Amino acid sequence: MVVRVSIIGASGYTGGELLRILALHKEVEVIAATSREYAGKPITHVHPHLRGFYGNMRFIEVNLDKIMEADVVFLSLPAGVSVNYVPKLLESGLRVVDLGPDYRLKSPEDYMRWYGFEHPQPDLLEKAVYGMPELHREEIARARLVASPGCNSTAAILSLIPAIKERLIDLDHIAVDMKVGSSEAGRNPTPGTHHPERENVIRPYEASGHRHVAEVEQELSKIAGRELRIAFVPHAVSSIRGALATSHTWLNSGVDEVRIVKAYASCYGKEPFIRIIRGPPVGYPDPKYVIGSNFADVGFAYDGRVGRAAFMAAIDNLMKGAAGQAVQAFNIMMGFDEREALMIPPLKPA
Ligand SMILES: NC(=O)c1ccc[n+]([C@@H]2O[C@H](COP(=O)([O-])OP(=O)(O)OC[C@H]3O[C@@H](n4cnc5c(N)ncnc54)[C@H](OP(=O)(O)O)[C@@H]3O)[C@@H](O)[C@H]2O)c1
152-317: what fold? Predict the structure, then answer.
């Protein structure tokens, strides 16, 4: 079975990654890729690395008649834009995977608070499934609308699932320290993300109240069975790709290293894209060793002396943090092997 796919926002970084992954997908034909700025130009004009994969395919304007010839539509758009397209796509019977934040949060009020707009379709927030397979695999399989998680959120949540699920930590004192590369900000430079300003930095930004904390708290609260409040401090770092969450926690009494190892094995032992990192040659997750892949490397540092542990997750923000995870969810939704087109080893050196 060949599934026809359209991508709205295909000239951006996550749209480009979707094109790169889907070029390898045995069951997919990409029939439309939009860019308002580059409409009419070959997709290789913006994505020269894809030469030889899409023939002479050209970007089109956001022409819904053409886009809706597909079976599934991916949207790689800035916050607040997908809401303009998704209802019509769903009404036409298409399935949708949105890489932006417009359907990630369940509470409509949260959109005003975190994103500054009133959500026009609260009913769809109920129906959307948060597209993290490690949490919602069965719901994704039944979904018509998948809200693919944010990059920082993916790393933060994956770092903390075993600790929270297996009741290892004090749930009232969790602090996530994030480091993330420049591609998380998308292709258009701003005064803070323009290369000369961004190179060689280790810079905290939105160090309290970063919008990604909303989805982190939402998803981890479900696992905890009660509302969590989590401190979350992102840092912009010099690399282009990669995100590392280091989650600082205090251990419940009696929790030792063996229990933590067992918690990891029970939560992640069967996950196709989670690698548990223990010991040499590199003792802890490092984004450098997942670049270009859909893997999330997870691990921890146990400090019995002070009764605490740091839980870590490293991802490529454009892959497991965006397009890779979105295709993983798409595969589940369409009944394909979850790993199709995604079993790409990371690059080294990167
Ligand atoms: N970058 C990451 O690491 C990452 C990770 C996870 C999730 N995300 C989320 O994924 C979404 C896309 O991120 P990105 O990094 O790919 O952004 P990007 O590089 O800035 O690309 C945005 C794309 O959207 C198109 N676009 C912008 N405004 C539009 C509009 N009003 N109507 C139609 N198309 C429009 C742009 O093309 P034209 O202007 O030419 O039409 C471009 O193709 C964002 O919501 C982001 O938060 C990003």
Answer: Dihydrodipicolinate Reductase; domain 2 (3.30.360)
CATH of domain 3-127: 3.40.50.720
110 within 8 A of 219, measured Cβ to Cβ: no
Q: How much distance in Å is there from the Cα of 9 to the middle of ligand 1?
A: 6
Contact 73, 91 (CB under 8 A): no
Centre of ligand 1 to C-alpha 236, Å, is 19
Name the residue type at position 288. Answer: K
Domains 3-127 and 152-317 share a fold: no
The residue type of 97 is V
**What's the CA gap between 334 and 350, in Å, rounded?**
32
What are the tens digits of pLDDT across the range 130-157? 999 999 999 999 999 999 999 999 999 9
CA of 182 to the centre of ligand 1 (A): 14
The alpha helices in 83-121, defined as continuous H runs, are 86-91, 108-110
**Atom of ligand 1 at shortest distance to CA of 36?**
41
Q: Residue 75's beta-bridge partner residues?
A: 8, 98
Residue with CA nearest ligand 1 atom 48 = 184
- Give the ligand 1 atom nearest the CA of 14: 16
Compute the distance between CA of residue 44 and CA of residue 64 in angstroms, rounded to an integer.
22
CA–CA–CA angle 324, 328, 330 (5° rounding): 115
Task: Write out pLDDT tens, residues 147-188.
Answer: 999 999 999 999 999 999 999 999 999 999 999 999 999 999
Q: Distances from the Cα of 19 to the Cαs of 46, 108, 174, 319, in angstroms?
A: 12, 32, 37, 12
Active site residues: 151
Q: What angle do CA 286, 290, 292 make, to 5 degrees?
A: 145
Which of 102-106, 181-185, 195-199, 254-258 is the least confident region? 195-199
What are the sequence ranges of the domains in the chain? 3-127, 152-317
Which residues have CB under 6 Å of ligand 1? 9-15, 35-38, 62, 76-79, 81, 99-101, 150-151, 183-184, 186-188, 317-318, 321-322
Amino acid at 12: G
